[in-house]
Each structure stands twice: as structure tokens, then as C-alpha cells.
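FW: tagging you since you asked about this chain on Friday. Here's the raw sequence from the shared folder, copied in full. Didn't touch anything.
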Amino acid sequence: MKVLHISAECYPAAKAGGLGDVVGALPKYLNEAGLSTGVVIPKYRLKWFEGKTFQSVYQGVVRLHNWHIPFSIQQFTGDSLGFPFFVADIPGLFDRAGVYADPDGQNYSDEVERYLAFQQAVLQWIVNSPGKPALLHCHDHHTGLIPFMVKHCPEYRSLQRIPTVFTIHNGAYHGNYGWDKMYLLPFFDAEARGLLDWRHTINPLATAIKCAWRVTTVSPSYLEELREDSNGMEALLQHERHKCLGIINGIDTQVWSPKEDPFLLYNWTGSLADFKQSNKAALGPRFRIDLKLPLVTFIGRLVGEKGADLLPDLIDRVLQSGMQVAFAVLGTGQHWIHDAFRHLANRYPGRFDVVLEYNEGLAHQLYAGSDFLMMPSRVEPCGLNQMYAMRYGTLPIVRSVGGLKDTVPDIGVPNNEGRGIRFTHFNLDDGHIAIYRAVELFHNRAVFEDIRQRITEIDFSWERSAADYREVYEQMI
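HL: got it, structure written out here
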């Protein structure tokens, strides 16, 4: 195996956000391109694991101070993922019914112990394996200490010549904790202490940026944004800019295929117009809305980062204005946003409805049946939803941040390069104008249909992104 991806998530086994999508797709496309690539994540007690068969390939014990934790590395015996898939089975720490939080949404309180154990289990396995990977690709702060450990921990120093790549999927989360927990770390060179520190805490994200051979983010614009605003890490990213690179994520076009998607009631077999109309009608049983109107959809986590807290007041203002448009929302998140959406559904029957759940199949149906997808994100490192939407002929309405800025040129740009509608400021005025422009475009049928057809033909595949990552790998291997 040339490349080993180390992550907290990997779709379809464990997914809480875009990290899972990336780690579940990129290795598959790297393998298809001839670069042997595998993945290792913790073994959770999640639905996907039920009935799956794993074979133990290594057993060991991790030490956290005076706590000795047995673990095993197991390989999935199936071949459905498109890459070798390994899990670190660490009883007591990861055999839980959630990735980061319990089913009630309460974050686990032992995150430090969990990820220190996971990272060391993976490194111990690699140290004792006869065939070592040529490169380690670590993802987000959950694996951020690995580039440090292979350089400065005597137990893992035999791996120090293996190149490390670290990808920042969401720079808002540093995983930092106080120096009072230093006793949990493996022994490390005393002179390397400063590499662990950022603003007087142990900061795995900062440590990875300092120690990894190369650092990537999931879009060029997001990298620039992090250099300006990254919760106090701006100076570090400026200092390390020589080894940082932004690479736009791709999407798995085998999973997101309007012609073959098993979640859709109607696949694309004839015209795009028929495909869209049939799937829009199929939304009727789940959403009490007038489907003759232009349909604007939000799909995702109902949290401030995604801009979901703007939506209740924005939708209320739009519908009070008399604009002829309908809204549908799918997702879960903050309870006050749930309550606000329930209120809107009662106040505007036929114009607004919401399904407060995580439902992968319904999400696919919404991408296929909607006219527009709303993404008013405060922060969006790359964003995948806008790519899914365009693949299914749905125009994105996005705030001009991160990967949304890189992937959605506004329809007002010249040379027929526009793909959707962008707005700049996170406020009701800008959001209202964006929806107004969308409704006006919807009624300009010739232009609307032309843009809708054109965005389905854009190459958002992982082949393009995988080629960029492969180039990075080959520079180091």
C-alpha cells in the first residue's frame, strides 16, 4: 500500500460531514488511477458495521500514562468500497453509537483520550507491519499529532522518513487542550515541546501544520480565508505558506449519478426537463408545498456555521413580501432552529415545509427535484452540496465564501460561465435579493433551462482532484 489515509470518518462506514465523503471517495479514485491507497478509522458501533465481517491483522496495547488500552487493527473482508479498509477496534473508547456525540447530540467528554489512543494504535500497527505505506495522509485535528509523533516520539521514530500530508477540512476545530493533560502523551523529545504548543495549549491542528511535510485545504479560497481568520492561527498559516496548497474536493460521480441513483424515484432517461419535473412531483408525499412554484431547498446541518440561523427570518421576509416561491428544508441541528421552522410550516402551509431528520435518500430526491439549493454558509471550506445540486440540474444560491466562491461563478459573469447566484454579506437584505434573482431567472425559461443543462455537464469528479493529490504525493515519495 503506497498511501494510508488516517481519519475519524469514512463514508459509508462513518460520516458526520464532508470529511467522511472525502475520505470515502478520494482513495477509491486514487486506486482506480493505479496508486494503491487504503483507509483506517476507529471502529464505531454504527449501523453500517452491522453484519460486516472483519479480519484481525494486528493486536497491541496503547499506553496513556498508567492506563493500558488493548486494541486490534481489523481489515474489512468485503470489496464494496473500492479500497482496503481498516478499523482500529478500541473497546471502551469508540464502540459507541455516534462518531463525535451520542444520539442525543451530547459531545463525548473524553475526546482527548479517544484520539490519542487511536493515533497511537495506528502508528503501533504501522511500526510492526512488514509492508509499510510510503506516505501517511492525515485528516483534521483528530490525527494532527501523527506528523509530530513520527518525528519526535522514540516509540515511532522508525517512521520518521515516511512523508506526511495533512488536510484541513475545517479549521474552526483545533482539538486543543490544556498542558495539564500532557501526561497522556507518549514520551517525546523535550526540545520538541514547542511544536505541540499554540497559545499555551496543546493544539493538534497547529502541531500538524508545523510538522507535516505538506498541508492542504479543501479549496484555494478557503486556504486564503484561513490565513486571514482561523481562530488565532493566522500567523502560523502565513509562516508555513510555502508548504500549503488548496485542492478542491471532488464528488463521487458513481454515487451521485442522476441516471443510476437508486434513491431517486425517477432516473434521468429522457430530457432533463422531464427528469426534473418528475422528481419534483415525487416530493409531494413528504413536503406540503405548492410544487408549481419555484422550489428553493436547504439540505444539511441546522447550525450557524451553515448559515441555517439566517433562514427562518429570511424565509419569513420573502414570503411576507408576496414573492411566489416555495421552500423545503431537510436536516437537524439546533433546537431553536427546529422550533422556528415548525412555526413557519404552520404559518405558511403550501409555501414552506420541513423534515427534521438526517435522510440520505430524501436528500438525493431533493437534489433531483429542487429548482434551487440555498447555501448561506458563514464558513464553507469546500462544500459538496452545491456540486451535488449542479450534477442534478439544481442551481445553487450561495454565499461567496470558501469553496462556494471557487465552484459557483454568478450568472452575471460574462462568457456563459455562470452556474448559480452568489451573494456577499450574511444578512437578510443580500439573501432576499439572491432569492428574488432566482425567482426572476426561473421565469426566464430559455435562460434558466440553458444554465440548468450546462451545470449538469461540469466535471466535478474525483478524477480531477485525485490527479492533483497524486502530484503532491509523487513530489514527496
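FW: The mean pLDDT is 96.
HL: agreed, and The first strand starts at residue 3 and ends at 6.
FW: great, closing this out.
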